[in-house]
Design a protein that fits this description.
By secondary structure, the protein is α/β, with parallel strands linked by helices. About 45% of the residues lie in helices and about 10% in strands. The protein has a domain of about 150 residues: Alpha-Beta Complex (Amidase signature (AS) enzymes). The chain has a 5-stranded mixed beta sheet with strand order 2-1-3-5-4. The model has no long low-confidence stretch (mean pLDDT about 90).
Length: about 280
């Protein structure tokens, strides 16, 4: 219902797609008979937690019981998703966030003395205002991505990093295009491990980035995706399952995920784990 309310063309956004908005509630109760779901071979290799794999396979079985068919598909370039994404996304962030300088957009330093945060000299008061505004206005992760993106886009590194990442993105997109010629949706784990505890990986950004291994492909390929809980581990940590579909396949994704939650008792597993 929320998606129904916010979806649609925004004439003030040049990247907004101008297409009719479907009725997302219309087919939620429609049976899944004949739905073809792909199981990505590369997602079930080394590094996947056994409990996560077990719950994901149970979810595939639940879809089969509901009338869907499961087919093996391959995404040969899936392993390049994380490094490709974390070159392209920071590069775009670096470019887009350049306007937040305290003069045109965003937070502005109020002129009060503060910790230099590594900044010791300024050429002019204007440069000082820019530097301090951005130092105060951006958090550590945003600064990290700006620095990564600025490096990747700099002279001498553009072709070696950013341009190459764009070519790999095309290969990843081609993988999905070929897979969707065989299946309607692609299913699999959201991450290789169960949910980690709050703050557990905060000081290790590389570990945090690697968690996105199975999900960044949707961003790179420009396709649709949805994730939902599919069970709990013996330690009572939630496991996620995701479905990915071609661009503008939100109605089918919502139908498939809704039908799963209506016909399974995944939510009872946590209650059982707690009581036992």
């Amino acid at each position: 219902m929320l998606l129904q309310a916010i979806a649609g063309h925004d004439p003030g956004d040049s990247t907004s797609l101008n297409t009719p908005v479907p009725d997302y509630l219309k087919d939620l109760e429609k049976p899944l008979q004949g739905l073809r779901i792909g199981r990505v071979t590369e997602h079930f290799g080394k590094g996947l937690d056994p409990e996560v794999a077990e719950h994901v396979e149970q979810t595939f079985a639940a879809y089969e019981a509901a009338g869907a068919t499961i087919h093996e598909v391959e995404l040969p370039h899936a392993s390049y998703g994380v490094p490709t994404y974390y070159l392209i996304a920071p590069s775009e962030a670096s470019s887009n966030l350049a306007r937040y300088d305290g003069a045109h957009y965003g937070h502005r330093w109020d002129g009060t003395p503060s910790d230099d945060q590594g900044i010791t000299t300024f050429d002019t008061p204007l440069v000082e205002m820019y530097c301090r505004s951005r130092a105060e206005g951006f958090g550590p992760e945003v600064k990290r991505r700006i620095m990564l993106g600025t490096y990747a886009l700099s002279a001498g590194y553009y072709d070696a990093y950013y341009a190459k990442a764009l070519r790999v993105r095309r290969l990843i997109r081609n993988d999905f295009t070929q897979a969707f010629e065989k299946v309607d949706l692609i299913g699999g784990p959201v991450s290789a491990t169960p949910a980690f505890k709050l703050g557990e990986k905060t000081d290790d950004p590389v570990a945090m980035y690697l968690v996105d291994l199975y999900t960044v492909g949707a961003n790179l390929a420009g396709i649709s995706g949805i994730s939902f809980p599919c069970g709990f581990t013996k330690s009572n940590l939630p496991v996620g399952f995701q479905l990915q579909g071609p661009a503008l396949s939100e109605p089918l994704l919502l139908q498939a995920s809704h039908q799963y939650q209506q016909t399974t008792d995944w939510h009872l597993q946590r209650t059982t784990a707690i009581s036992s």
